[in-house]
Amino acid sequence: MFGWEFPPHISGGLGTASYGLTKGLAKQPDMDIIFCIPKPWGDEDQSFMRIVGMNSVPITWRDVDWNHVNSRVGHYMNPQDYFDYRDHIYADFGYMNTNDLGCLEFSGRYPDNLQEEINNYSIVAGVVARREQFDIIHSHDWLTYPAGIHAKQVSGKPLVIHVHATDFDRSRGNVNPTVYSIEKNGMDHADHIMCVSELTRQTVINKYHQDPAKVSTMHNAVEPLAPEYEAIEPHSHPGEKVVTFLGRITMQKGPEYFVEAAALVLKRTQNIRFCMAGSGDMMNAMIRLAAERGIADRFHFPGFMRGGQVYECLKSSDVYVMPSVSEPFGISPLEAMQCYCPSIISKQSGCAEILDKCIKVDYWDTHALADAIYSICTNSSLYNYLRDEGKKEVDGITWEKVGYRIRAIYDKYV
Q: Could you tell me if residue 108 is left (phi over 0), alpha (psi between -120 and 50 degrees) or otherwise beta?
């Protein structure tokens, strides 16, 4: 399996989904997963699979001893793996900028030279595919499609790709031709394409011209709350309600609709606070917009949150809002509902296909969004219904079930 991020070092839903999905799959006794990421940090959970750091797989031969390798990569990888990979270097990459171990460095993020990192990742994938024994290749999102294609060409094994988003979602239609061509190439080479929603499946069929027979919908799920998150006590704020937006503050997520709806709500009542948690290229614009609407004193921008902070925020919220313009799936409302927080989601999100115990509005309809926020905050029976029924609904949406559905697809090709 090729991925780009993995908890606890994540910047969005891709890492969260990769973790849940692999954990769900690993519950099957005959499933062994090798999960490749550009740069592990050593604190990833490897209890149910093996992580391979692509920054520790050599592509040029270096004469190094076991102790030196152990001191460099031993905290997340068995040094013997390094030497085994070294025996499978398949070309002269001496012209490339490698380190003292003959490995390529990766940022583990989404740097300015992302294109170069994607290409380097696919080069390293050639070494991994030559050394490892496997039945199927599974690539997550466009960043790892070239790696999946290379592994398929080396091994002759079937390739399944997982579309968590397309560039049509990320760019509001202003598609980057380079990204589009990488996505299209991945889809053309794939034996099967899994999409996180029917919405995304239709985009893949219509915009990337794929055969509907090889494209299936594979909705995401949610991990049961870890005991330490379950134990978090919500902050009480008597006499006030808290309405939260939590995600990347970017065009795709529709943050301006949240601010405009907040302004409409605050014309009717003053005892509601709004929280926009996250970071992104529209954050400063949203701070300005809140000031222009005269609601800055009721608005909080706590910045990017991870792990326990996310659950502390959700547990202390009375309403969760995801007004995404184009959301292939959207795991965050499921996480909110796990924390007994009623959710409002846009009809333009993939999770709207499987969630019933929440309120759905068109992302652009700020009046409907404001009405929904106001209703949940002022009508206790509506609040209690969405809180309790939402929690029940989302507890039934598990990664283990998704794992069995993915397995059924694997079995068609292996």
A: left
